[in-house]
Design goal:
The complex is a heterodimer of chains A (about 260) and B (about 290). By secondary structure, chain A is mainly alpha-helical. Chain A has 13 helices and no strands. Chain A has two domains: about 50 residues, no CATH class; about 200 residues, no CATH class. Chain B has a six-stranded mixed β-sheet, sandwiched between helices. In chain B, strands 2-1-4-5 form a four-stranded antiparallel β-sheet. A four-stranded antiparallel β-sheet of chain B has the order 12-13-11-14. In chain B, about 45% of the residues are buried. The chains are: A mainly alpha (about 260), B alpha/beta (about 290). Chains A and B meet through helix 4, helix 5 and helix 9 of A and helix 3, strand 6 and helix 4 of B.
């Protein structure tokens, strides 16, 4: 039964009683202010007043989408620039896969400006006092950088596999790419958490140092790049992957508790 | 709604920045006055839950604010003293970015951004990049971002720095209007701002509240300590070196000094009505500068 039909039926059935009792009366203007005051007082005296008054807020995924809107282009652009730079060296990589780890820290380097942008522009304090905790801000940017890196690595490894004239197995190539990346990222996150990395510039030498380290490794330890050394790479993957995961757990835990991450105001 | 500071303390190594500060704040405007290094900014950061205290706690309706986490920061609007900005963002983009951090849904953020740009007189510059803004305009953007989530607790560190007198008056009216059913805490260089809008003032020195009360209550502490004295021009320097001179004006060959002193500085000195600025000078006159 529609509303109008229901009203007609009630009017017919109850007549005057409907008009007097059931049909809503217009508010009395002289009582309006008084009613508003009573309602205000009820809300203000309730213990969970802020809970009641809280307006709609977005969740993490909406927040991530907002971060993508503001930071996405920068993060993806820098990762694409690094990928382009690495692709310029594909002829080197095609001949010598041991050169692959040298370039991996550069992908971490590309994420630094986004991760430390707040500190660089002196925005950390303002950002830290918002609903999104410092940990949430970092986590969202890491998700974006991680997604971009995943695409870049897949493309790079596919090119390496397709163009490469060497006999290195795909899984070993993956380890060549992932181990230096995880090592570098774990160190960067640890430094941010312990506030040793206050701005982007102070992180650059460390990351470039890692790149240099992986550059001299084939000369210092050529055996490490033989097929028989796959086990050593796998162990390194487990160890540095654990360090990386530990840092991620710290961030996730701090995000859950709404805490800062590596920020002292 | 009550924000309580319970023996709040912050140490930086051996230096005590905030020392067992306690207060109960209910809706209203609270002014924080103190010299540089008095601990005001440290206190404000602890109130915002972005700096952990060494001991003591901040409670919102009986709940510890750091434990409340995002739920507390959701109620908070904060304008830091020296805040930065992303230079390539327009004012509108910047506010929408902060709105995203504050968890405002997009449509709501868009409406709120427009309303706040209008309220702070920045509608005409909404699409201009922040790097082209003057100091006063940036400050107004800072004030606008603090108000985005319609905060129940508004903490403003030097909000009127860089604003011209007209903007300051507009800001004062805005805050006075806004403070109904909200807690507003502000520290400022400009004593007259606090005098005009604060319901209660805290005078902070060496990390402690040395005085607190309404403006008339505080001014009583400076009563009978403010004097006016007319001296010849040539004696003016000597007086300035020996007593705290709050103000001076030239009248012919004489200089009229407004002196802050416990005792009558000269036989010819006449007592006059104290102001909050006099009180400030009474407590901090010997220090280099104030904020």
């Amino acid at each position: 039964m529609r509303q109008s039909e229901l009203e007609t039926y009630l009017k017919q059935t109850f007549g005057q009683a409907f008009r007097d009792e059931i049909q809503p009366k217009a508010p009395r203007p002289e009582k309006l202010e008084e009613t508003i005051d009573i309602c205000k007082n009820i809300l203000l005296t309730q213990k969970d007043y802020p809970e009641n008054m809280r307006e709609e807020r977005t969740g993490f995924w909406q927040y991530l989408s907002d971060v993508f809107r503001f930071e996405g282009l920068r993060v993806f652009g820098l990762q694409a620039a690094v990928l382009f730079f690495v692709c310029l060296n594909l002829s080197l990589l095609a001949k010598d896969p041991a050169a692959l780890p040298v370039f991996m820290p550069l992908f971490v380097l590309a994420a630094v400006p986004a991760l430390l942008r707040g500190q660089y522009y002196n925005m950390s304090e303002m950002e830290a006092a918002t609903r999104a905790s410092g940990a949430q801000i970092i986590l969202a940017k890491l998700v974006l950088a991680g997604a971009a890196d995943l695409v870049c690595f897949t493309l790079l490894l596919w090119l390496e596999r397709t163009l490469g004239s060497h006999a290195v197995e795909t899984r070993q190539l993956i380890l060549y790419a992932i181990v230096p990346y995880l090592t570098c990222m774990a160190l960067l996150l640890r430094n941010i958490r312990l506030q040793k990395c206050r701005n982007a510039l102070s992180c650059f030498p460390q990351i470039l140092g890692f790149s240099f380290f992986w550059g001299i490794m084939p000369k210092a330890l050529p055996g490490l790049y033989r097929t028989s050394a796959a086990g050593a790479w796998f162990i390194a993957f487990i160890v540095f992957g654990s360090f990386f995961l530990r840092e991620i757990f710290y961030i996730v835990d701090m995000r859950k508790r709404g805490k800062m991450y590596g920020i002292i105001a | 709604m009550e924000l309580s500071l319970d023996r709040l303390t912050k140490h930086y190594g051996s230096k005590i920045a905030v020392d067992h500060v306690s207060a109960d704040l209910k809706p209203g405007v609270y002014g924080l006055l103190g010299a540089n290094g008095a601990g005001k900014t440290t206190l404000m950061r602890m109130l915002c839950a972005i700096l952990e205290s060494t001991s003591g706690e901040v409670l919102f309706d009986g709940e510890e604010v750091t434990a409340m986490g995002a739920a507390y920061r959701d109620l908070l609007g904060y304008l830091p003293q020296d805040f930065g900005y992303y230079p390539n963002y327009t004012a509108e983009e910047f506010l929408r970015y902060i709105a995203a951090l504050k968890g405002l849904p997009r449509e709501k953020a868009r409406k709120k951004t427009r309303a706040l740009l209008e309220m702070t007189g920045l509608s005409h510059a909404a699409r201009k990049k922040l790097k082209t803004f003057s100091g006063g305009m940036k400050q107004r953007v800072g004030i606008a971002q603090a108000l985005l989530n319609d905060p129940k607790i508004l903490i403003l560190d030097e909000p009127t720095a860089g604003l011209d007198p007209k903007e300051r008056v507009r800001f004062r009216n805005l805050i006075a209007d806004y403070a109904e059913n909200r807690i507003v805490i502000l520290s400022t260089h400009i004593v007259s701002d606090i005098e005009a809008i604060a319901d209660k003032v805290f005078l902070m020195k060496k990390g402690k509240f040395i005085l607190e009360g309404t403006v008339p209550e505080l001014i009583l502490h400076a009563q009978n300590k403010i004097w006016e004295l007319s001296v010849p021009q040539k004696e003016f320097r000597r007086w300035q070196d020996t007593v705290t001179v709050a103000n001076l004006r030239h009248e012919g060959s004489q200089v009229i000094l407004r002196i802050v002193s416990d005792t009558k500085p000269a036989e010819a000195a006449v007592p006059c009505r104290a102001t909050l600025e006099d009180l400030y000078l009474y407590y901090f006159g010997k220090e280099n500068s104030y904020d």
